[in-house]
Amino acid sequence: MAEHPVTAAPSPRVSRLSVTPVKGLGVTHPDEVELTPSGMRGDRAFFMADADDRLLSMTRTGAWAAYTAAFDPAAGVLTVTGPDGTRVTGEVRLGEPVKADFFHHHKVAGRVVEGPWAELFSELAGAPVRLVRADADNGGVDLRPLTLLGDASVTELARRSGLDEVDGRRFRMSLGFSGTEPHAEDTWEGRTLRIGAAVLQVEGPVKRCGAVNRNPGDGATGLRVLSLIKGYRGLGRSVLGRGVLFGVYAHVLRPGRIRVGDALEPAPAH
């Protein structure tokens, strides 16, 4: 009897990269990014704080979801673009220091950014807002440098919820990937992955918040995604405590450039 060769299953591949220089604004999807020890270069370099020095993010307001930002660190120029194409741009000048409360979990140090952006963001939010540049690179990330979520997991959420689809952009994950079974990432904790020139180590699950309920296009609420996830996955435990889990954290072992289409391959720990 002839022997048939055994072929290895194809590796999962990067399907989407998501980044925003200003936490709380709409994410953009570049074809490639540079991973540094603290995350995607330039990601979440800025964040918004309210009058009580608390983080004001997508969980609390979707007012800025239709706005995107670009930051040129060499020139020190920040540009915010609205849905109608209007732009607010200028040189970033740093003012007074602030320590903002992130989720009652940790404080993030930064300096208030002087210029026209606070007026724009305050008007949209209907409350006083300060734009802050974090002292640390990528200082506005929630907890860990990167988050990962499989496309199949989002498809499974839609299936379980009786929906045609759920927009994966709702989850604002650093890296989306295709080519696995639903929730395969849940089994990857501790695994080391090579992606392009970079090496990552996968951590535990991401505890989701109300931000996933917001439409990624306009920030409006309507679809109760958090409840839909809980409906079939229940509650679990994460580094932030018990809650609704969807996706996983990761940190960077070896910096390098990654691109859409790159394979996620096992790699030895460094």
Describe this structure in words.
The protein has 270 residues and is mainly beta. Helix content is 10%, strand content 37%. It folds into two domains: 32-134, no CATH class; 144-266, PK beta-barrel domain-like (M1 Pyruvate Kinase, Domain 3, Beta Barrel), CATH 2.40.33. The chain has three helices and 19 strands. The protein has a seven-stranded mixed β-sheet with strand order 1-12-11-17-14-13-19. The chain has a four-stranded antiparallel β-sheet with strand order 4-10-9-8. The protein has a three-stranded antiparallel β-sheet with strand order 3-2-18, with no helix packed on it. The model has no long low-confidence stretch (mean pLDDT 93).
Produce a short descriptive summary:
InterPro entries: MoCF_Sase_C, MOCOS_middle, MOSC_domain, Pyrv_Knase-like_insert_dom_sf. This protein has 270 residues and is mainly beta.
Please tell me how large the radius of gyration is. Answer: 19 Å
- Number of E-state strands: 19
The helicity comes to: 10-25%
Let me know the largest β-sheet: 7 strands, mixed
How many domains in all?
2
**Which residue ranges are poorly predicted, with pLDDT under 50 across at least 5 consecutive positions?**
none
**Oligomeric composition of the shown chains:** single chain
Q: Order of SSEs, N→C?
A: EEEEEEEEEHEEHEEEHEEEEE
Q: Output mean pLDDT.
A: 93
- The appropriate CATH architecture of the largest domain is Beta Barrel
Shape field: globular
Look up the CATH topology of the largest domain: M1 Pyruvate Kinase, Domain 3
Given this structure, which CATH class of the largest domain is correct? Mainly Beta
Instruction: Give the neighbour order of strands across the main sheet.
Output: 1-12-11-17-14-13-19
Strand residues, percent? 35-45%
